[in-house]
Amino acid sequence: MMLMSAVLFTAVVTAGSSTPAEALPTLESGVQCVDWGILAGVVVGVYEGESRRIACPLFSFPLLYNYTSSSGHTLLWYRHTHTHELEQPIVLGTHTFLKNRDSLWIQPATRQDSGTYICMIRNSSSCVKMGVEVAVIDRDGVCDRTLHHNVSIPIQSSYTLRCPDLQQLHTHTRTVTWLHNCDGDVLVFPDREVKGDEVVIYKMLTSFAGSYTCNVSYESNGHKLHFTHTINVRAVSPSSGSKEPRIHNPTSGHVYTVTVGEDAKLTCRAFLPYLPDEDWMVWWSIDNKTVEELAEPRCSSPAASVELDDYGDLTVLRVLHIAEFSTSDLQREFRCSAKNSRGNSSSIATLKEEVYIPSVELGCGLGATLALAILLFVLYRVYKLELHLIYRSWFGTDERSTDDKEFDVYISYARNGEEEQFVMTTLRRVLEVELGYSVCIFDRDSLPGGNLLECVLRCMQASRRLLVVLSGECVCEKSVSLLECRLCVYLHHTLRTPVITVRMKGSGAPCSELLELRRSSTCVHWHGERSEKTDSRFWKLLRLALPVRPLALGPRLIDSTSSHSDLASVALRQTHTLTHTPHGLKRPCNQSQKERGCDRRGRGCEKSGRVCAVCVNFQESRRIWGGATVPQWNTHLQQSTVANGTLTHATNTTQSVTSDPGDNDDTKPCDHDKNDNSEIQTTHC
User: By C-alpha distance, which of 156, 200, 208, 152 is closest to 180?
Assistant: First the structure.
């Protein structure tokens, strides 16, 4: 653009010299003046209160025109400020504006001096003018670096710093002071010194880089004036050595990992050595076509960026983005290239497909699984009993469909006021009415008369669970509860009948029966008022030990008062069967029962050399009374005597057992030695 303007200027000057009549006249000169406008990209800055030299922008093109060859022409100055709409001629010869050869000095500058300054070269036949912007700014301290120009000096080389505009100063009465980074002492190093008005650097070091400020003071027309200039010195790499560009990435050993279906990012890293006033280039090409030439929407490459500037040696990055990388892209050639004035370099990227591993999904899944496991563990620890009850109610087997027992649970307790009230009012009511279990209580559900041991044993064998309320009185000598405790241990070891113990308070007598009962049972603790609610821990543990019942069972359809008559009928049938069995005739047993040595209810022991493991002592004697055989059972609970056909117990409870005269055979719970007068002592405690 400037070259075309210069050619136009030459044509205008030539045309004006050859045919002056063709030039259009102006108001002042009668010829038309060619206006080149304002010098683009240049603003002359000056600090307020300081002097400044403004060079004519027409002499910026020395091949076209210079001051020495402009003889016969007149150099005029105009200015267009913000306070005037038209160009005003500058009055020269004053102390404020001074013309010196091809430049104009403003000394000193004020805010009103900001504007456009126009230099005009003219003669009688031609006229050319061009302007430059001038800005007057405030100075911020002595070390203000707003106005400066840059100088790059290679390391280990020499250089001389000269203060600008000093050579064009029209007076020699001046004083020059140099500052380095606002430090007045620049003679610290032997490789640098101030020599006259200049700073001479004999060997450039990195510590010499920085800002150099020259302060110039002088006199003009009796006025003391001054101006300052700042030079930023930059240390660059030496000019020796190879200056060709090099590609750091990609290299022969570098592999770019890409995933098919995802966006790919290829990074090119190029090294460009320092060259003064150098224009370099770094670009990507795909199949020998640049990204711009390829014009593929999936591929884009932003402008290169400088990653590292090491004393002018640049490390430049250029990134290539490929959206939705496909399998066919693996067959394409991706090349990175770099170029400067000394040469060029390129390298091909090696691509490798990466198998997609959903690490984020796996991590989230494992985290969610772990959190869920912890939550389930906490819920299980808090609601363990409820979960067990729900599981049993859904998947448990109802024992009523697998056996022919009449009761779910047999309750044994000490016959005193406190425990009897607990059993009758609390335990029985909740189990029968609210939970729907069939409960056998001997004192309530047994028939009067008959042998005590046989009746208790029969009731226990007809129950699926044996529940014992433990207290200090339950193991007292000569009590029914002691007999029930021993029978519970016996049935647990022989028929594997589950035993449940409810501990209300500590037992006072640590006898062997109580210890064996504790080892053989599931213990549930009663905590008084805290356990009275049906959703308390006591009832949940008790339900886990009892047979399975559905979730919602409701109250029993048959009132608990009818259980006495039901048991009475069952007991009468079983007693009739036992007492009317002929002597020596045994009930049929299957092979497995014969191997165990007892029938299904455990009422007989037939294995050779083994006696019944019942936890009682009994004597079997044949006493002739009215032509009938009377089986007599003696336990630790009773010291019985037979007189006139009456069996008297030490508990003051008299039950008469009179056998049928028509029955000549004696029914025994166990088969033992045929010696009628022998006494078998069996104890399991």
Answer: 208
SS3 49: coil
**Contacts (Cβ under 8 Å, ≥6 apart) of 568:** 447
3-state SS class at 161: strand
Question: For residue range 138-192, what is the model confidence (pLDDT) as tens digits?
Answer: 888 777 778 888 999 999 999 999 998 887 776 667 888 888 888 766 656 788 8
CB 495 within 8 Å of CB 612? no
Q: What is the Cα gyration radius of the chain?
A: 61
pTM of the model: 0.48
What pLDDT is attached to residue 418?
Answer: 83
Residue 354 per-residue DSSP state = P
CB contact at 8 A, 499 and 520? yes
The catalytic residues are 484
Cβ count near 527 (within 10 Å): 12
Q: How confident is the model at residue 366 (pLDDT cuts 50, 70, 90)?
A: very high
| CB-based contacts of 44, cutoff 8 Å, min separation 6 | 52, 54, 132, 133, 134, 135
What average pLDDT does the segment 636-648 reach? 33
- Residue 57 is predicted with a pLDDT of 86
Q: Is 310 helix (H, G, I), strand (E, B) or coil?
A: strand
- pLDDT for 507: 52
CB-based contacts of 119: which residues, under 8 Å, 6+ apart?
A: 56, 57, 58, 75, 76, 77, 104, 129, 130, 131, 132
Place of tokens 């008299």: 654
Look up residue 85 and give its DSSP letter: S
pLDDT value for 221: 78
Neighbours of 297 (CB within 10 A): 7
The first and second tokens of residue 538, run together, are 């006591």
Q: For residue 327, which of 259, 237, 267 has the smallest C-alpha distance?
A: 259
Higher pLDDT, 141 or 29: 141
Query: Please, what sign has the CA dihedral across residues 236, 240, 245, 246?
Result: negative
Predicted confidence (pLDDT) per residue in 228-246, tens digit:
989 999 999 998 888 999 9
Q: In what order do the strands lie in the sheet with 34-47?
A: 34-47, 127-137, 115-122, 74-81, 88-89
